[in-house]
Amino acid sequence: MAIVYKNMTEIVQNLAPKILEEIKKANNILLHCHLNADADSIGGALAMMQVLETMGKKVTVIRGDSELSASFSCLPGFEKIVHKNFFEVDLAQFDLFLIQDSGSLNRVSNLAPIVFPKNLKTITIDHHATNENYADINLVDSTYPATCQIIHDLFVAWNVEITSNIAKCLMLGIYFDTGGFRFNATTSGTFKVAGHLAEIAPNYSSLISFVEDSKTPGVIAFQALALSSVKLYCGNHVAISGVSHASLKDMGIKESEIYPDIAAVLKSVVGWDIGVKIVETEPGKVKIGFRTRDEKVYDVSKIAVACGGGGHKGSSGVRMNVSVEEAVKRVVEVINSIYPELGK
User: Fold this and answer.
1) Shared domain check, 84 and 225
2) Global pTM value
């Protein structure tokens, strides 16, 4: 345990006691899954829920704006997630909102502007460098590759038991947010934490297999549709996939079946330095994801921020109220302005 604690950053060490103090004062605690929730969001929420329940707290985890993928149903506690978005919850019932893995309030909900009532204490736990520090207490540390790794370190600092079920939730969040330990933010500390979790839950790999092998025909149809739409820009160094809402509707593809890693597939091609996925989830509303082959050369968070979004240097995103065609035009303009050398 001491070895794991040794890798904890000063930010986490300094804020861990303050966050625990607020948790101890609270009775009813709200947790959420962010928009288009991934393993880091769902796993982190469920792990925190289980620890808070052992502290005697009443905990509610809400689904948020998006339907949750059934591939994550293997996570312990998944069935306890309440199928409501932020605006369907009576905030007067809660005295603490732990906002995890959400760099901005529109990741909590994109349905309307969010204003917290005075009775509600808010705490952010996040690893996105573009986090807007919108809570009362903001634990934001972008040196961590996953929010679940921060949560693990908080549990260690709080000296709470990490059970097998909690370890499974944290391991899946770390595994998928590091791209299977491939992304640059992955450190030796990440492997030490993963090793600690693997000791507690040695059968974690069966959950990873479940998530990866639970695709629906719609997911495969989306992959085919997205890859068939790829066009090259900026001197053939930027690959953009653009899928319209009409195409999704024609093929009966649900929003939960939109494969998240198309941009990662594109940037895997030699010479395609930036991969971009643009999907029109509703008429006139697009979701955009950016990935880069080398974040030290092309920081895609700069592109996302310029478009009104955020994220990491190697992986970021944004939502825009425009058509696919307008989104492509805007993205290309931004990339050309930030990295004009790509078009030469």
Assistant:
1) no
2) 0.87
Range in 2-11, 93-102, 260-269, 296-305 the model is least confident about: 2-11
Q: In what order do the strands lie in the sheet with 96-100?
A: 58-62, 28-32, 96-100, 121-126, 137-140
64 phi and psi angles, rounded to 5 deg: 90, -160
Q: Within 10 A of 296 (CB to CB), how many other CB atoms are there?
A: 9
- Same domain flag for 242 and 304: yes
pLDDT tens-digit map of 238-252: 999 999 999 999 999
Question: Could you give the C-alpha distances from 25 to 3, 18, 55, in angstroms and in order?
Answer: 30, 11, 11
DSSP state of 219: H
Tokens of 241: 């996939």
| Residue numbers of the domain that contains 168 | 2-212
Strand partners, 121: 96
Buried-exposed string 165-190: b where 16+ CB fall within 10 A, e elsewhere: bbbbbbbbbbbbbbbeeebebbbebb
Helix axes 39-54, 147-158, angle to 10 degrees: 20
pLDDT of residue 126: 97
Q: Is the dihedral of CA 155, 121, 36, 132 positive or negative?
A: negative
pLDDT at 1: 41
How many CB atoms within 10 Å of residue 254?
13
Give the span between the Cα atoms of 338 and 290, in whole angstroms.
14
CB environment 80-109: b (16+ within 10 A), e (fewer)? ebeeebbeebeeeebbbbbbbbbbbbbbbb
Residues 68 and 130 occupy one common structural domain: yes
Q: At which of 192, 212, 232 does a domain end?
A: 212
- In the chain, % of residues over pLDDT 90: 88
pLDDT at 190 over 70: yes
When divided into structural domains, the chain yields a total of 2
Count of Cβ atoms closer than 10 Å to residue 197 Cβ: 26
Helix (H/G/I), strand (E/B), else coil: 139: strand
Q: 224 and 208: one domain? A: no
